[in-house]
Amino acid sequence: MSENRTEAPTPKRREEARKKGQVVRSADINTAVVLIACIGTLMLFGPQLLTEYAQVLRQGLAQTASPQLVTPDGVGQLALWAMRSILMLAAPVAIAAMAGGLLASVAQVRPRITTQAVTPQWSRLDPRQGVKKIIGVNAVFETLKATVKTAVVGVAAGLAVYPRIGELAAMTGLPPGALLMMLAGMIGRIALYVCLAFAVIAAADYIFQRRRHEKQLRMTRDEVKQEQRQSDVAPEVRGAIRRRQFQQARKRMIADVATADVVITNPTHFAVALRYDGSKPAPELIAKGVDLVAAAIREEAERHGVTVLTNPPLARALHREVELGQMIPESFFQAVAEVLAFVYRTAGRRRRVALAA
Predict the structure, then answer these.
(1) C-alpha distances in angstroms, 91 versus 48, 319, 327, 331?
(2) Is 177 a member of any domain?
(3) For residue 143, what are the domain limits?
(4) How far apart are CA 239 and CA 193, in angstroms?
């Protein structure tokens, strides 16, 4: 069937996919944006953060010399102060990372709230599907893709370091301040190359994800024609067609009551009609309804001489648990068997009385 999906997806098909949470999204774009945001923040505020970190370190060392540190309260206060200071220093980078990740997600999928993507699906708990994800073709492909990404990032980092290998030997004996400046410049160069590599990877992955998404949304010609026919009909006409179809289906259901063996009622609010002709393992529910539909079922049964019995619990349970055209579940076998046995005995007595007359 997949080879016949040669038609481009229609706007309606795209909108239905979005409602289900099926959109083009590349995790690599989020990774690249978050990485660029973090590195950009460090490059902008790095000197200031380094100065503040040194100040925190000096204050911490100074507080360790205080006599109050030997008490449990003093140790707790020092630990709390250290944690608060580190969090304050890390806050700009963390905020930049969260903002970058949120911006990347919104830019890819556009703001849309849908619950269908997180609705529990029992098929996800199937162990066979889990094994396929682990050892299937997609798993192998994702592993190869991760290997290629790692190699690309490694090559980018190598290209950043290789031209300056000679400078590493010259760093021996440099003062700490000069050594720190040279290391910062080299690290910044590596970060720039890695960011560019991740940007290229993210762009390639987004193109790939978009092509795969488009392939999954492709439609057959019959699906396109059917959608066009539905879209050409006005909503009022579609509503009228659905109402007419419902009325015709109800008329057919009421007509089937004539072939029923018994109608079980509430007696006024519910009515269900059962038929058992021996062609199926269990009796079949051929009609059910409430209020006016239940009254129509009772009238049709009386018109054709179908036995009508009053059993409110059984009528309500069958109406709630059994769909139209389905066989009754095993849990109802005994109750329904008793009803049918009574109907058959009653019909037999009537037949004998008619013959005697």
Answers:
(1) 13, 60, 64, 61
(2) yes
(3) 2-119+127-223
(4) 60
Residues 23, 102, single domain; the answer is: yes
Please list the residues that pair with 289 across neighbouring strands: 271
Distances (CA, A) of 280 to 190, 275, 317: 74, 10, 21
H or E element, residue 71: none
pTM of full prediction above 0.85: no
**What's the pLDDT tens digit per position in 189-203?**
888 888 888 888 888
Q: Does 245 share its domain with 217?
A: no
Write out the DSSP string of 201-231. HHHHHHHHHHHHHHHHH-B-HHHHHHHHHHH
Give me the residue label for tokens 């560019």.
Answer: 196
Chain Cα centroid distance, residue 349 = 60
How does pLDDT run across 79-97, given as a tens digit for each residue? 788 888 888 888 888 898 8
What backbone phi and psi angles, to 5 degrees, belong to 322? -110, 130
Assess if residue 132 is contained within a domain: yes
Q: Domain end: 157, 192, 223, which one?
A: 223
Task: Give DSSP secondary structure letters for 141-195.
Answer: HHHHHHHHHHHHHHHHHHHHHGGGHHHHHHTTT--HHHHHHHHHHHHHHHHHHHH
